[in-house]
Amino acid sequence: MQHIDALWADFTRPIVTAEDYIASLRGRRMNVFFMGERVVEPVDHPVIFPSINAMAETYRLASERPELGGVKSDIADAQTNRFLHVPTGPEDLVTKHEMQRELGRRTGTCFQRCVGLDAIGSCHSVTFDIDAERGSDYYRRFIGFLKRAQTANIVIGGAMTDPKGDRSKSPHQQADPDLFLHVSKRDDKGIYVSGAKMHQTGAVNSHWLIFMPTMRMTDADKDWAVVGAVRVDAPGLTYIVGRQTNDTRIVDGGSMDAGNAQFAGQESLIVFEDVFVPYEHVFMDGEWQYAATLVERFTTYHRSSYVCKTGLGDVLIGAAAEAASHNGVESVSHIKDKLVEMTHLNETIYSSCMAAAYRARPMASGAWLNDEMLSNVAKHNVTRFPFEISRLAQDIAGGLVVTMPSEKDLQNNEVGPLIRKFLQGKSGVDTVDRMRILRLIENMTIGRNAVGYLTESLHGAGSPQAQRIQIARGMKIDDKKQRARHLAGIAETRPKNA
Amino acid sequence: MQHIDALWADFTRPIVTAEDYIASLRGRRMNVFFMGERVVEPVDHPVIFPSINAMAETYRLASERPELGGVKSDIADAQTNRFLHVPTGPEDLVTKHEMQRELGRRTGTCFQRCVGLDAIGSCHSVTFDIDAERGSDYYRRFIGFLKRAQTANIVIGGAMTDPKGDRSKSPHQQADPDLFLHVSKRDDKGIYVSGAKMHQTGAVNSHWLIFMPTMRMTDADKDWAVVGAVRVDAPGLTYIVGRQTNDTRIVDGGSMDAGNAQFAGQESLIVFEDVFVPYEHVFMDGEWQYAATLVERFTTYHRSSYVCKTGLGDVLIGAAAEAASHNGVESVSHIKDKLVEMTHLNETIYSSCMAAAYRARPMASGAWLNDEMLSNVAKHNVTRFPFEISRLAQDIAGGLVVTMPSEKDLQNNEVGPLIRKFLQGKSGVDTVDRMRILRLIENMTIGRNAVGYLTESLHGAGSPQAQRIQIARGMKIDDKKQRARHLAGIAETRPKNA
Amino acid sequence: MQHIDALWADFTRPIVTAEDYIASLRGRRMNVFFMGERVVEPVDHPVIFPSINAMAETYRLASERPELGGVKSDIADAQTNRFLHVPTGPEDLVTKHEMQRELGRRTGTCFQRCVGLDAIGSCHSVTFDIDAERGSDYYRRFIGFLKRAQTANIVIGGAMTDPKGDRSKSPHQQADPDLFLHVSKRDDKGIYVSGAKMHQTGAVNSHWLIFMPTMRMTDADKDWAVVGAVRVDAPGLTYIVGRQTNDTRIVDGGSMDAGNAQFAGQESLIVFEDVFVPYEHVFMDGEWQYAATLVERFTTYHRSSYVCKTGLGDVLIGAAAEAASHNGVESVSHIKDKLVEMTHLNETIYSSCMAAAYRARPMASGAWLNDEMLSNVAKHNVTRFPFEISRLAQDIAGGLVVTMPSEKDLQNNEVGPLIRKFLQGKSGVDTVDRMRILRLIENMTIGRNAVGYLTESLHGAGSPQAQRIQIARGMKIDDKKQRARHLAGIAETRPKNA
Amino acid sequence: MQHIDALWADFTRPIVTAEDYIASLRGRRMNVFFMGERVVEPVDHPVIFPSINAMAETYRLASERPELGGVKSDIADAQTNRFLHVPTGPEDLVTKHEMQRELGRRTGTCFQRCVGLDAIGSCHSVTFDIDAERGSDYYRRFIGFLKRAQTANIVIGGAMTDPKGDRSKSPHQQADPDLFLHVSKRDDKGIYVSGAKMHQTGAVNSHWLIFMPTMRMTDADKDWAVVGAVRVDAPGLTYIVGRQTNDTRIVDGGSMDAGNAQFAGQESLIVFEDVFVPYEHVFMDGEWQYAATLVERFTTYHRSSYVCKTGLGDVLIGAAAEAASHNGVESVSHIKDKLVEMTHLNETIYSSCMAAAYRARPMASGAWLNDEMLSNVAKHNVTRFPFEISRLAQDIAGGLVVTMPSEKDLQNNEVGPLIRKFLQGKSGVDTVDRMRILRLIENMTIGRNAVGYLTESLHGAGSPQAQRIQIARGMKIDDKKQRARHLAGIAETRPKNA
Is the ipTM of this complex over 0.90? Predict the structure, then answer.
């Protein structure tokens, strides 16, 4: 295990505070690119930093509210961040979701740590099941890995979505084998993997990555049925950080035009070129039969994790109410009614996610998994309601959301006073405060964090159609038909137990 | 207590089976009217019987699945029907909701017992609270009443909605004091109440009724702030059973045109004319301050009780799938997609109700109450989604739902064979089965049970606007605004604990 | 033409008034069945009469507002009912739609005459086109037929929808050839047709029927590609009138419970058993290539004809406003807002239909046809918005819509006074008026005329998916893609003329 | 008129081509600010130029399709751009809307010229009406102005929206009189106006501006009831161009990241400081009674002008179809269904706008005005459907819309090849083309042109509530109630003429 110890040598002192975390990201030699340039030190990159700061909030929360942001882990026998915890009962999932909503409220964006968390949860039970059926050694390896991660209290990212190429073909049929991540070669120490993962949330801000297959596989796809963990700075990894709406606002003015200067999300394309993974960090290696299981458990966890968007919803509802108050119209009936509608939709999402947590069921490994139907239903609501909440927020806020002069104009001697004069709201409201709230609404509905609040709500954890397929699978249509036949008076079909 | 014992003399042998229950309704001397005629024996009235049979299903379920339909009560120290049980923890509410969905599935209609159940739950904690603050004796009385009811395993109905007259006036301001139920006189034995309750579900099928005020009151409304229990056959009570869509279908043909010949709902106008209530059965008498509390707790329970509609949804989804199958189009993509959408909406309702149960909180009396915000959100979804599910069911089923010949035509020698010839569906499908399923869809979407599935879903437990008012009250807008201000960078407003 | 003259012998005096029309329906020997019984004189059948009366309104309108309900026809060189007129320009279609909305407002139901009208319009241009390409004689025959009909000012019904049997098979592939209407034999005088037509609107109330194929055909389906006109009392025709929600309300009480005692719709199953059609009344006979053309032109006309539902919408909006006024809440903001929403949806339907009329294009015969895309869009809105308008009407009206005592109870000496006392609304409102308005809302949202307002809005003129197919065909996706490529900066793709 | 001639001295040669137009904008001395800096030459500003180019498309269209983009004006007796034309019949409005849709298709953004156009239309009839009632001279002045403008074929902008300050107060009650534009002083030559106009579309790209009051006024607001025309470079005018989402994308990479590099919208805050207006260019001066009339006519025109968004919808539908095609999934049923839904919504908007044009009515001046109810309905649909179309476009396009690497990354030697390798779609699709289409979808749904497609669709020409107020005013509720009463059988209420 010596070579394994070496891989963990940088993580001897547990990360405790947000400052520890940020410091831990410095000085790594990662291949990170953004807008055509190599980013030597992501922490110092003004566009990337807000995403690091959003991740750091998970540590702040654990410091400030340890019962919510942290948990005592039996695996490491230590307090660890809740984002490293395998849920062992419904209450764990419930608390997880409360934490996610609270982090959404605190950051107003994607704090990027849920993919890793849900990867841990699903690997726990899937490695256990593989071992149980095939006598393999994955569960021990995984627990060993997780114990080290918990002890060091690091950030684990998850990587699932392959480029997929021609969507009508399975991995082994692709013209280019790299269009799905796969074992490119192997030796007695471990495997080498090549390919890419797309849309990877917070990867640059993580310490280790767990990579997983993205879909159901066949016997011929064995080489693509691979799960493992690598350091984010492992040789052969390249990160290309995607552009986001208004990403450069943070550098082209002061803090105001950004809308939310402190926090943002991050997604990147990760390229793997013969990246080495020692066997001790390999958790699936050819067991293609379990690829679909892993994906389904992961998405079941992850679709409920979108409860975080209700935290963003809280912020946006608050911003809209504040904007209305600045205009002196908060008590006008149609404004109140829109705030109620936004809340209703937001809490509907919340209730689906929470119900999916409360109705969790245990896996053989002892990990508990959200109810699959309700988790899909929850995510499906997430693909719809934030768009309507966002539309209502813009309705309340008014057109200034998209026509407002820049902060630099506000600071200009000639036009600054004109802006202050003409953008004043209700008496007693500070014009700059008014502008800040409108910029926040822009940020969340048509700016940088709309990426997370809207588009990611559509596609993260699977696009809408993916949930519909799962809902179709789980809808027990035969039982429903039998109930109907019985009540319609069609003979001999009274359901058993009914 | 002798006079009280006399009132309970008819209920010495506990009702166990559905047959017991139906028998127990016979021979009572109630003033029941329907379509201009006195109904001497409701059990024998063909239009009323299906509603009795739906109520009877609550006993069938308790016999067949005692853990779901029944419960061991600490109050009576006996197994009792779950509809008589005060929930003592979230799990009780969860099981209650599972029972309600199952009964919805079994009957495809309103089984009418939830109002009484939710009256029991809310009286338990409110009588306790009044006593605690005012040293009154209501809780003991109520527990005594409930113990007798549980021991006899009877049906308790609840009566809340007053006629209200001029809605801009409070009870004491009405031209006619009877427009809200009130104490009309009192003596040393008890009180006399006069007025009326509207839209009362299953009243004729109950044994006792609990009456409650319908809204917030003031000091001047003292006489209207009254809660008590009466036998349904108490002197001075008159029941006028309301007409329902297609109510007479059951008598104008065979069983088929009714769509669901076995089960239906029932609502009536109950008139109280100086109805005597001994003090032992009075649970609030002038404590106007608690009227709003009682209403809010009742509606919080009752709005989640609308989870029953997901059971009806199950039946309707099954019926639509069966109709599609009869047409040979079940695997057509737009049909499958509509079934998925129906399921998604149905499960969204379910998850809101269940989340409201899991997140219950305890009252001082030891009764647990659903989460208020989520219960309102749940009911608000019920005011919308069944309408869309119903529309989709009709879309799948086709126009025959409303143009199909009658069962009598089918039995006619001349045209019966023509109907069989031309209404045949996919090969192998029995034409009569096809017609039965279409009649069931008619029944639930534009027939007798559409009353319960659609209109009652709008107005039962409070009309849509009532939920919006409660959502507005609970939406914690100040906290949300503070979160927004913080993220917008407005100084000195970071929320505490955030 | 002597035998033809004989067929028209009963129609020598033009029908002018509604009374003429009703009288003209008497004494015919049709095979009509309803609820298992032969209906000797439909005019005297209380359940059927309201549908006759709705049809009669088309004559009343023509008498009262001849410019709207009638038109000067060049074919007959006489004033005729507009329902017999072939549109010869956009203005004709515009006026037609205004007439349809007005009749919807006057009757609150389906007045059943649009199918025949739209059959006339489509036969005009299709017979012309067949003749032009094939040298046949259909157009002359059709004009001859139409001239007689206009001169007699009779009601022509249209019959299109075949039973279809196994939907995966074309007409000639069906196990039973009768599952699509077809030529069963022919002689030198004419053809004989057998089969059936389903959901036929107002057939019993018509004088003649035009039958048409229901879908695209192939060479092998020649015998099924047949169009012709028959008297409704032709030997071999049998009518089975379908049941409607609450159809018997009209006979089980006074006029009130029916909600709308004067007017209703009517749909029946028409069976054809070797019905003779002289060649002079045959307008297509084997030209299978034109079956699809005829269906498409018919549905293009007919989908816009659903503008009538905006007339029903007017009534329902008015009823909801009246109900709110009875409750004294008409000026409450959420009530007003719902009335606005209902109006918005209603006028959106109206605008789609009207736009489809204004953007009509001429056929070779000189008939003008609504814009196909917009007509499909219009009807597709009709499959959605009336359901939401209906839900909002029930929301405003309150639960009494489905729980109200019967008119017979109101007339009862014992309970009548109680109902008057407790159902009183705002001071000054007559309780019976209040009840009448609520019954009308019941009638249109969950009663007899909900059949026409809701379910028929879904399926009439083609179910929702039928419109989606046509929208897909007309959406010019290649032009749209080219526009996108051009703006995206993809080279060499600037569209011509753009 | 000499001083007037001087004001028009720069406009002696008519602008014919787009190149003429762009040249005409150079060398003007306007006070324009953007992002804190004075913009000396807006034409050369890379962020502003795309908005100029969008405006220029109105000239290109007039050159390429003179019958659509231009018109022969009777006022100037010359061919002029259609954006300078007063509609003299429904067909003019119909053609106007077709032109607007076509320009939306060509530019994918707001081409900014409709405010001026609709200002011309409304001033035509309102000045005529004022003169007719008060003997003033405004109409002659206005026609003189318009003739010069048409002859020179220039761009006229419109300016309506005042800052409004405290919304509960009328203009004269504001603490600062400048919060509504007003006459600050006057002399024998003309008036001076001060104040500001917000959200002004394309003002910097115009030659002249017509300013108008924004709402109903009272006698005390006389000084604020002012309409006039000024050159955009008149002394005292300052323009502060607002920030738009992703506005700087055009300068921070190549052309690709911008999504639509050629075209964009523009909105600015215009400050008026004692701007002189000679009486010859004053079209209302104290006639406060007509302020509301002017606003209502303007908004009636302008709400239908939002038909332009259906042109943007065409582009977005095309882009989504193209993206689906790149992924090889265009024929998948749920994708096709989403494209149909997008088209259905887009054409519903179109039909409302077109119906409002066809049903126009004439003003006394001879100008024709869209139907008010339908125009409000049209715009109200615009506040909803583009949001759903946009959501569906993102659904089809996939998450890459918001996670894609930048164009600079594509050009980078190290990562460019990786992007080409991993972002390849279906075989045969150029990866760069694929990226370009996704960037266009980003541009229209969460990028620069989403400002126009979404937020402006909400608030332009009045926010949603403004339409609801107008719909409420026009909904003829009394007639609707009477129809309902009649059908409900309430005596003596049959409507006249019905």
Answer: yes
